[in-house]
């Protein structure tokens, strides 16, 4: 008997190579598209939890870490990304 259930698979969305090339060549719009693409991931990495004396959990956001992640991504695209 065949199992006709669809498998849940994650959809991987990638930044098009043409957008990366434009960003590498100094196109601000392309760079903004890449930053928007990774925005959710960087926001998640910038979150942390704090606990008060009664055990209540507070989710906080580290703005400086978020800006550092953005800076490192831009620097990696402009300085380290090589097309061959």
From TrEMBL:
Pfam families (UniProt xref): HTH_16
> In what residue span(s) does the Helix-turn-helix conjugative transposon-like domain sit?
18-79
What's the protein called, per UniProt? Helix-turn-helix conjugative transposon-like domain-containing protein
